[in-house]
Amino acid sequence: MSEDQQMHTIILGHGHLGSAIAAAAAARGERTSNHGRPASGRHDAATFADGDLVVDATRGDAVRANVEVALAAGVRRFVIATTGWADDRPSVERDLRDAGAAAVVSANFSVGVALFLRLAETAAGLFDGVGGFDPFLVEWHRRAKADRPSGTALELARRLSDGRRSPAPEHDLEIVSIRAGVSPGMHLVGFDAAGETVELRLTARDRSAYATGALAAADWLRGATRTAGLHPFDPVVDDLLTRPAAVAA
Could you tell me the pTM of the whole model? Predict the structure, then answer.
C-alpha cells in the first residue's frame, strides 16, 4: 500500500467549516471521513480507525475530549481549527507531548489572514513611529457566531500591540465586534489621525480559504517529523512562501 493510500483524514465537525474542509479534501482526492458531534458528546475509538490525521472543527468544549480519544486510538497528527478552548490548552499540549503527537492550531487558517496579521503588525510599528495615529479594529461575523471578539480579532489586537514601538496603555486599542446577517468574516484595521485615516481590510467571501489553509497545515504535518506539542500556523505559511506556485494553486 502506498503512502498516499495510507493517509486518511478524519474531520470532526459538520458545520460550515468542517464541511468546507471535507469538500476541499475530497476535491484533491484525499480519503476522508466527516463526523458530527455524537449523541453521547464524546467520540469513541472506532471514529478514528486507521486515521493518520484529525482536523477538529467542532466546539471549544469538545476539543480536549476529541484529542484524548484520538490519541488513545493512535492518531499523532492534528489540525485544530476550533476556538474557545483556551482553558484546556495546557492540558491538550501536555497530552500531545506525552504521546509524541503534534498539532497545528489557529483561530483562522486563511493564508490571507495570516499575511494580513503580519501586515497589521508592520503597519502598527510604522504609524506608531510617526506618532499622531490611533489604531482601531472592527470585525464583523454572522449573527450566530458566539465568541466576541473573534479569535482572529484577538490575534490582530495582539499583533498590533507587539508591532508598536512604544508601550501602549492597557485597553488602548478600540475593538468593535458586529454580529449580524451571514458574513463569514470581515476584519478592518485602521489608523486615524487629525487629517487622515488609513485602513487595511480583509473580507472573506466564503470558507474555502480557511479549508485551503487547514489542508496546508495537514500537508506540513505529514511532510516531516514535527516536534511534539502545539504549533502555530506561521511555520506553515513560511513554508508556503518558499513555494509561490503552491499558493497560487
Answer: 0.83
